[in-house]
Amino acid sequence: MHSVLRLLKMVPFLLIVLCLLWRTQGGLLFACAMWVLAFLYMRRLPPRLKGLPVAWLTVLLGMLCNAIVTVANGGYMPVVGLPSDVRPLFPTWIPARPANYLVILADQHYLFYFSMGDVLILSGVLLWFVGPWLLRWLTQLRAQRAGVRVADSLTNSS
User: Fold this and answer.
1) Which of 6, 9, 25, 129 registers the highest number of CB atoms within 10 A of its CB?
2) What are phi and psi of 79, to 5 degrees?
């Protein structure tokens, strides 16, 4: 039991190591290992983050989109619209070709070289930061409106 807890505490470190290995080396093995560990890590998020289901599910869906396209393409992320004279920073990015799978989920020129998965992940993370504030603001707004309605009804009944 103690060794399992120690291993769980190492998940973020292992995830970073696997991500770096995948980004610098490429390949299906590192991609699969990194994505499996990333999904396991998502299950262990603090309750305050899981308490915002729209944000959590958005990040999860984005990760799933990125995982599917990278695994379908042998551990590499195709890039649609990559100029032929540009060399990607990491070997995991490859120019999209007709032989690639699910290029609709790949990095896209029209999305500033982000993928739909990246957009979903960024949106979910933004919701994690803005969501609690937005919920408090909406609750206060509803409470103020309810207070005005009660005050109006008391004034009109007198």
Assistant:
1) 25
2) -120, 115
In the structure encoding, which two tokens stand for residue 66, read together? 């990125």
For residue 114, the cross-strand partners are 108
CA atoms of 84 and 77, how far apart (whole Å): 16
Helices 53-72 & 116-157, crossing angle to 10 degrees? 170
For the stretch 85-101, pLDDT in tens is: 998 889 999 999 999 99
Kindly indicate the confidence band of residue 153, based on its pLDDT and cuts at 50, 70 and 90.
Answer: low
User: pLDDT higher for 125 or 51?
Assistant: 125
CA 72/CA 90 separation, integer angstroms: 18
DSSP annotation of 91:
T
pLDDT at 148 over 90: no
DSSP per-residue codes, 89-110: SSTTEEE--TT-S-GGGSEEGG
| Three-state SS at 139 | helix
Q: Which of 16, 13, 12 is nearest to 24 (CA)?
A: 16
Q: Where do the structural domains in the chain lie, given as residue ranges?
A: 2-157
Helix (H) or strand (E) holding 68: helix 53-72
Q: What is the pTM of this model?
A: 0.80
